[in-house]
Amino acid sequence: MSKRYRVNKQIGHGVFNILKIVLKVFHSDLIFCWFASVYASIAVALGKFLGIKSIIVVGGVDVAKDKNLGYGIWLNPWKAKLVRYALHNADRVLVVDPSLGDDAISLAEYDGKNITYLPTGYDSSFWKPLGEKERLVLTVAVVHDIKRLKLKGIDLLIQAAEKLPELQFLVIGVNSKLASSLKYPSNMTFHEPIARDDLLPYYRQAKVYCQPSLREGLPNTLCEAMLCGCIPVASEVGGNTTAIGDTGILIPPNDVDALTAALKHAMKLPDNSGAKARARVVALFPKQKREIELHRIIDELMR
Fold it and tell me: Tens of pLDDT along 39-48?
């Protein structure tokens, strides 16, 4: 957005963050909120009062209500009311995957006429394969507690690794303290979170990328790995399905046997099988496509 507009960012939490949001809204021509949140509801309400247009980008947790996993902002009654208001009253709600639009309509109980599907975009000139692949299964997920570990399916991956001792598994993004408390086989390695760009050599190294999550929007890591020629194996939920299509292996969520079989099969595929996965992301989710459409939407609202 900063290529075309003057962008005044506000990132934070707490009362002082709310005050900063309020002050900045008064000096803005358009409000752009990443995630439908309590903060977004305040910005949208003030924008509506002042006649300033607003956009909300929905990412996943903001349209989730899963009691079994303890996941989703909608589990909190008063936050749910504010998020419902934000979704109803934003001039445009952008969803990175169609499944999130369905979730928003269901939870907020409205017609969803302000919802537009706009997937995230990826730079295929940066995320690209290089060199030979290794017999490595890679998973990337920022995990700080057991709840999120289960949400991302890492507990299932540990069980699959135990059944596949001939393969190597690497999970990047798990807090070291949490990792040290886990019981996992010797063919599995955990690594703390690293900068996004630093993931490139790992994507290039791994033959298979695994996303065994129980919920997903459109996963950046999955798309980036596919651009780097990884063969994708993922649970058939949300944006995993949209990203992979027929270029990898989709399995039922929470099914260890299916996950184990899929990983074993993927590792036997020719190394060039990842080229099909890369071609899909290049065609469907280019960064330029998102940029052009985002500019069009913003220009339309500001007119």
Answer: 999 999 999 9
CB 211 within 8 A of CB 233: yes
Matching residue, tokens 């063969």? 231
Residue keyed to tokens 């305040």: 42
Round to whole Å and give the CA distance between 122 and 216.
17
Helix, strand, coil fractions of the chain, as percent rounded to 5: 45, 20, 35
| φ and ψ of 127, to 5 deg | -85, 95
State how far Cα 182 lies from the chain centre. 25
The predicted structure's pLDDT at residue 24? 95
Tens of pLDDT, residues 162-194? 999 999 999 999 999 999 999 999 999 999 999
CA dist 90 and 250 (Å) reads 34
Cα 47 from Cα 42, distance rounded (Å): 8
Task: Kindly report the backbone phi and psi dihedral angles of residue 142, in degrees, each rounded to the nearest multiple of 5, phi listed first.
Answer: -75, 115
Helix axes 98-108, 77-89, angle to 10 degrees: 110
Alpha-carbon distance of 32 to 25, in angstroms, equals 10
- In sequence order, the 6+-apart residues with CB closer than 8 A to the CB of 56 are 33, 35, 36, 40, 44, 86, 87, 90, 92, 93, 94
**Mean pLDDT confidence for 79-95:** 97
Conformational region of residue 223, where left means phi above 0, alpha means psi within -120 to 50, and beta covers everything else: alpha
Mean pLDDT of the chain: 96
**Rounded distance between C-alpha atoms, residue 115 and residue 88, angstroms:** 10
pTM reported for the whole predicted model:
0.93
Eight-class DSSP state of 2: T
